[in-house]
Amino acid sequence: MLRTRPSTPSWRAVALAMFACGWGGNQFTPLLLMYRRLGGYSALSVDAFLGAYVVGLVPGLLLAGPVSDRRGRRPVLVAGTAASAVASLVLCFGGGSAWPIYAGRLLTGVAVGIAMAVGTSWVKELSSGSDQALPARRASLCQTAGFALGAGVAGALAQWGPWPMVTPYAVHVVLTAAVPVLLLRVPETRPRAAASPRRGLLRALLADLRVPAPARRRFRLVVLPMAPWVFGSAGLAYAVMPQLVGFRVGDWGLAYATGLTVLTLGMGLAVQPVAKRLHARARAGRAPVAAMTAMLAGTALCAANAVLLSAWLAAAAAAVLGAAYGIAVVSGLLEIQRMAGPDDLAGLTGVYYTLAYAGFLLPALLASLSGWLSYPVMLTAVAGAALLCLALVATGARTTTA
């Protein structure tokens, strides 16, 4: 039961927290080339920094949602937003050593995980109206906008601003500082549950992460094969492609990497209304199939560009992968929101985003294998995996009920 009937604008403060955490999460991505050139870190090291972010995401996504189901949305999201600012402070002063970067990225991951699992659920609960897809679009839009603007501003400051390893993070700290205070005024939608023994609480948290039995087959055939491609596509577009073609753009490498990031996420924003129309109840299976079809096209372009090494083809691949990302993230959220009940919404949202962010490990995996396999071979294999997942999703969308 909800404690209070929220006013319509209340979701905006939660969306702002998601925006700020998304900004902090993705501001690092276009700076990978900067860390290689100014910090002297290897390609494997900078991809491992991305991996540390994913490691932090997992507990943020899987634990924060169920905890907020039982302890309330507000305290958990306030803590996550504050952690995002602290992470930027660590990165601001720790760029000269790998361990502070790992620590900052780990904490950033925790913050983004909290924002995605708890914020998405809170926005849904605070939204009103007959459009059932609107809350998912609001949450995805704000998070993606944070990802895009964070990357764009950080990349521009690093390319042309003073103190390139400090200024981007300082901007984020200033942007985020007041957000936890704003959240204190948002109505709580999940009353704090009565205290329970530790073992009982752990059992309840694990129960919140289970997919309801009637939805498990569709989850396995539609959501599971699609989810890792949500951020796997982003990793290919703005982590792998800039490093492959960086020599083509010379001193503009940082600006180019920033441009690919903004292009990818901008396309993701642009196609989200299309995802909503594709996911109308009468034809809900079309959105996941459309997402995976675009994923296949984008990964095929990446595989071709591993041979051609064209900056323009990399941009085309980023645009296609961005469209795939936008359709996939919205349709995945809508699938989860239809499967979940009110008591496990945040928990299942966390499960979905954990699967989605597993794809962000793809650049580190490819970098670690590059000593044995060439990028044309590896990216061709990635395209083959996308084809297999498309077949699974198409089968699941046709044979299961939305």
Structure description:
It is a single chain. By secondary structure, this protein is mostly helical. The chain has helices at 10-26, 32-37, 43-71, 73-93, 98-126, 134-160, 167-176, 179-183, 198-208, 216-249, 253-270, 272-278, 286-308, 311-339, 345-358, 362-369, 375-399. It is built from 17 helices and no strands. The longest helix has 34 residues, at 216-249.
The biggest sheet, with number of strands, parallel, antiparallel or mixed sense and barrel status, is: none
Q: What's the overall average pLDDT, rounded?
A: 85
What is the helix tally?
A: 17
Shape: globular
| Oligomeric status | single chain
Query: N-to-C terminal Cα separation, in Å?
Result: 25 Å
Fraction of helical residues: over 70%
Q: How big is the Rg? A: 20 Å
Q: What is the H/E order?
A: HHHHHHHHHHHHHHHHH
Kindly estimate the percentage of residues that lie in beta strands according to DSSP: under 5%
Query: In terms of structural class, how would the helical and strand content be classed?
Result: mainly alpha
Enumerate the spans where pLDDT stays under 50 for 5 or more consecutive residues. Answer: 1-8
Number of strands: 0
